[in-house]
């Protein structure tokens, strides 16, 4: 018995030593920077998935406003039986991009009505103004419209009316403004047709007046604001797999997304039927959010625009169609014309269109992606053709090329070798992997060629399970990403850009999860992963500073990760430290420098002992950064880092 007690005592002492260990020692070489951090290091990836554009950031509340969906009545219903032929869908192919309209033939004064359900309802707020607008063509004058907003219980919460001007015979526009009396996420719109007469109606639309920057028919301001709060260095658009399309006919064609809104040609969204468990037959792209609006959004929030264009290949997970090489010139010309649209003066054809749309000054495009998640020799062949022409005509534009769908394997190895052999400017690497992959990959870029192609971590996300539903972007996933991002930051001379993907998810209309930001028709919140990337983006610094433990990079030894940068503008040393343990970690960080570390430091902590916790609409800030002032003595930082935590320490340098 005494031997058993003695053994138990020995084990207890050993355990005590384990959890009361001496501080882990680290060294920061402040005066020996190893490289520069790209000014657009941390950005966002935008794709119209999960109702990200239509039904999301594009603030239009009416679904199928121009009757152009495959089923022209989708989203609409007649409010009562009407005589045969009194409501007809007319298809006039002479109308560019918008052939269909609704013809009303109303011989008497009995009211006829339509109702639109919106995108899983319409989000409206009490006291805010909304603008109903439409295009119409009078054939026999005498009609007027009455518009109503109803809540989810059919209670009237807003109303107005307008007459259709009888003075013109061609297409005209009209609008009326009214105020919502209540707040609801599930409103619907009634349009009553009154009087007698014959007319064609099109582009029946409802927008809040309170859009981003109050632009008429603009973007949802809370969704833009949460992006602006990150201060992203770039916005990659429009995707994503919608660049490729299920087939080439369904690919994203930027020229069809600019010019007058009513002339932009709608197509089915390729995420419409991609996932059998999340069928979304009402998902289309109206392109009210088109390339002009993407460029404008990037400019608004101080981000570089990073457009991605189709390279003559459809999604290889779907049809895998390719355009013949002898027909690739059209695709290459699209790239040349896009550069002209973005950067050309108003005397050029596409620069003139940009100016006519309201932006005479160039957008100053610097980067262009050729292809999205494409692979194989067929991609390399097409990329080479793009590169030859682009580098001859626009050597100032950096080309971004795809390394395929995975961060390792035969496809990746093939492309990595070929792209580097082509001297491609930037290679786009994607990784959707479990937390263990991110934790073990913090040293991934430590041995990359410093003089070769740069890296764009174009799509990353730690997946605990997928699809796992709204709000299940967990702290476990986010903390593993924080650990991995130390490796991106430490190798900022190689990794030029990084963005989580996808960006937005609508709780009532998602196809893919997890996502960085979740919304419903009225609310928006950032996931723990959003909070992590936001902390990196707001504290990116300008210079890479080495931090080591036992003269080695801190890449997961004892489940601890760290990176350090210096910010030339704020004169701060910024330490990022991840403790991926269920116990606190005591650390002593020695700063080697001739400069002084003085003044109050700032400490920002994201932490939770429960790895499975997540933010939600009900608790949008369950995981949020907590900031405080900290005082340290001299050039040694002694700190206890909480269990499962991501800490940012900002030290004034003189």
UniProtKB/TrEMBL annotation:
Pfam families on file: Alpha-L-AF_C, ASD1_dom, CBM_4_9
InterPro entries the UniProt entry points to: Alpha-L-AF_C, ASD1_cat, CenC_carb-bd, GH, Glyco_hydro_b, Glycosyl_Hydrolase_51
Cleaved signal peptide residues: 1-20
Gene3D superfamilies reported for this sequence: Galactose-binding domain-like, Glycosidases, Golgi alpha-mannosidase II
SUPFAM superfamilies: (Trans)glycosidases, Glycosyl hydrolase domain
EC number of this enzyme: 3.2.1.55
Enzymatic reactions: Hydrolysis of terminal non-reducing alpha-L-arabinofuranoside residues in alpha-L-arabinosides
Keywords in alphabetical order: Glycoprotein, Hydrolase, Signal
Domain spans labelled Alpha-L-arabinofuranosidase C-terminal: 458-645
Similarity-based family: Belongs to the glycosyl hydrolase 51 family.
PANTHER family given in the database record: ALPHA-L-ARABINOFURANOSIDASE 1
Protein name: non-reducing end alpha-L-arabinofuranosidase
